[in-house]
Amino acid sequence: MIRVAAIADVHMAPDARGTLREAFSTLDDLADVLLVAGDLTRLGTEDELQVLLDELEGVDIPRVAVFGNHDYESDRVDALVKLLDAAGVRVLEGDATVVRVGDETLGIAGTKGFGGGFAGACGTAFGEPEMKAFIGHTAALADELHRALSSLHTDARVALTHYAPVKDTLGAERPEIYPFLGSYLLGEAIDAAGADLIVHGHAHNGIEKGVTPGGIPVRNVALPVLKRAYTVYCLLGS
Ligand SMILES: [Fe+2]
Ligand SMILES: [Fe+2]
User: Fold this and answer.
1) Cα 127 from Cα 170, distance rounded (Å)
2) Are 198 and 158 in contact (CB under 8 A)?
3) How far is the CA of 237 from the centre of ligand 1 (A)?
């Protein structure tokens, strides 16, 4: 069994220092890997990210993250990657990593993802260049995720995104903003490649549990949804 701890949307900043440290202090006993599904910070600065890394001090299990839209706000993503790298946190941006848990292997493929909406109410790459760029960005990230997932030949596979791959987990979010919360292209890509679990965030007013059209469990692990520092999912492997 592989125990996957997951959280998203911690939006760390100096005034949140100390809020997660105690919960993280027992994480090594409860899980084999920690996934962080984006919005690590409020404004994407190194100072804010350092607060999260300080909270995670003492956590030795593998830590894997994708960025969220907030982490892009200050245009400091390269610096954030360096900081995470130095702290031993693997950042996925359309690629994959493998974690060994005892005799089993867990593959994690990740991307920030992007918006566009869901079946029957989605944008298309048509008309103005800006619209083509918007949907094109989502399509490119979905393609990368498909490739990354397909490259994994592990006992279990998880897809890690910030934006939602289905609307099931959007809960009480207003339907008017669904196109800014996720895209069916991400769900389609994951269904086509296959996975045992999808973890995402971004929809603060969403609900935890959903499923893709292909039957893959989807979990929205945004902090305001979980209302705790993380939750743990158990995967059986093959
Ligand atoms: Fe967020
Ligand atoms: Fe977000």
Assistant:
1) 28
2) yes
3) 30
CA of 26 to the centre of ligand 1 (A): 25
d(CA 132, CA 127): 7
pTM: 0.98
Residue type, 122: C
- Interatomic CA distance for residues 19 and 88, integer angstroms: 21
Tell me: the pLDDT tens digits for 24-74?
Answer: 999 999 999 999 999 999 999 999 999 999 999 999 999 999 999 999 999
Bridging pattern class, strands 104-111 and 95-101: antiparallel
Nearest to 106 by CA among 123, 125, 88, 90: 90
Closest CA to 131 of 141, 122, 118: 122
Q: Residues for the chain: how many in total?
A: 238
> With 0-12 CB in 10 A as exposed, 13-18 as middle and 19+ as buried, what is 6?
buried
